[in-house]
Amino acid sequence: MSSHASEEKHLILVDGSGFIFRAFHGIPLMTDPSGTPVNAVYGFTNMMMKLIRDRKASHMAVIFDAGRKTFRNEIYPAYKAQRPPPPPELIPQFALVKEASRLLGLPTIEQEGWEADDLIASYAKAMVQAGGQCTIISSDKDLMQLINDHVCMQDPIKERYIRADAVFEKFGVKPKDMVSLQALMGDAVDNVPGVPGIGPKTAASLINEYGSLEGVLAAIPTMKPSKRRENLENHQEDARISYKLVQLKDDLPLPTPIDELGCCHGESEPLIEWLQQRGFRSILARYTKAQISTPSQTPTEHKSEQPADHSDILGSNYLNYETVTTLSQLQHWINQAQETHYCAIDTETNSLDAVQATITGISMATAPGTACYIPIAHQQDDGTLCPNQLPLKDLIEAFNPLFTDPSVLKIFHNAKYDFLVLQHNGFALPTPYDDTMMISYVQSSGKHRHNMDELSQIHLNHDTISYDSLTGTGRKRISFTQVAIDKATEYAAEDADVTLRLWQILRPELRSLKVLSLYEQIERPLIQILTQMEQDGILINPELLKSLSEEFSQKMMVQEQEIQEMTGKEFNLASPKQLGEILFDDMGLPGGKRMKTGAWGTDSKVLQDLSDKGHVIADKILAWRQLAKLKSTYTDALIDRINPQTNRVHTSFNMVGTVTGRLSSTDPNLQNIPIRSEEGGKIREAFIAAPGHVLVSADYSQIELRLLAHVADIPQLKESFIQAEDIHARTASEVFNIPIEGMAPLVRRQAKAINFGIIYGISAFGLGKQLGVSAAMAKKYIDTYFARYPEIKAYMQNTQEEAKEKGYVLTPFGRKCWIPGIQTAKGPLRAYAERQAINAPLQGGAADIIKHAMLDMNKAIKDHGLHAKMLVQVHDELLFEVKEEEAQELVSLAKTIMEKAVTLSIPLVVEAGIGKNWSEAH
Question: Given the DSSP bridges, would you call strands 433-435 and 409-412 parallel, antiparallel or unpaired?
Answer without folding.
Answer: parallel
